[in-house]
Write a structure and sequence with these properties.
Layout: H1 7-16, H2 51-60, H3 66-78, H4 85-91, H5 97-110, H6 116-123, H7 128-140, H8 147-153, H9 159-172, H10 178-184, H11 190-209
């Protein structure tokens, strides 16, 4: 990532508080916790941002330094700043991949269906990190129209992308994707097989709960 943070940008970001969510992100755990790990912070870790800090972060989305744009996007998602969605949609098309991933992460946190086209764009990227971020975020927005692209991601060369896609299909409750989940149950990756077991159990639970 190129471009140094300006002192003003550093000050604005530090005023909000850097919470360590700005790298490519931790790998999801294995086992039962895989699909419940959503790159999502618990509500207690989401303090409301004062209007002044929201305005600073929105302005930083246009900072010359990609690092500032990336961190601002993630803090806006972390702070559940829903009015940032239109600006984050633009950031999802940023020339810097880190900024695009940060925007995708934030859009997932905000659970806004308007993010669907932008997240599909990330899902079609040549960058594995962007595809993986999109795979998780598409499930967080709970948008059934994401099922076709998640089906494509479920066959991705990367086990991280495949696992995220299968988790998202289960989270959405995509009964129509049952065959993809069944196929994932025989994936060579244990991580993907764990995801398939979780997704199948979730969909079965939803079906049994339906009147």
């Amino acid at each position: 990532m190129t471009g140094a943070l300006r002192p003003a940008a550093c000050g604005a970001l530090l005023a909000v508080g850097l919470r360590g969510v700005f790298a490519w992100g931790p790998s999801p755990p294995r086992g039962d916790a895989l699909c419940t790990w959503e790159g999502r912070l618990p509500p207690a870790a989401r303090p409301a941002l004062p209007p002044g800090q929201r305005a600073q972060l929105l302005a930083l989305l246009e900072d010359p330094a990609p690092q500032a744009r990336d961190r601002a996007a993630r803090l806006l998602g972390e702070g559940r700043v829903h009015e940032a969605v239109p600006r984050l949609l633009l950031a999802a098309g940023d020339p810097d991949d880190h900024v695009r991933q940060g925007a995708g992460w934030a859009l997932g946190q905000l659970e806004d269906a308007r993010a669907l086209p932008a997240l599909i764009g990330l899902a079609l990227s040549d960058n594995e990190h962007l595809r993986s971020e999109a795979a998780w975020a598409l499930g967080l927005i709970h948008e059934p129209r994401a099922v076709p692209v998640l089906g494509k991601l479920a066959a991705d060369p990367s086990e991280h992308v495949r696992g995220g896609a299968i988790c998202s299909l289960g989270r959405i409750g995509a009964v129509a994707a049952r065959s993809l989940i069944d196929r994932a149950a025989h994936d060579p990756s244990l991580k993907v097989r764990d995801a398939a077991a979780w997704a199948e159990a979730r969909i079965s639970g939803q079906e049994s709960a339906s009147p």
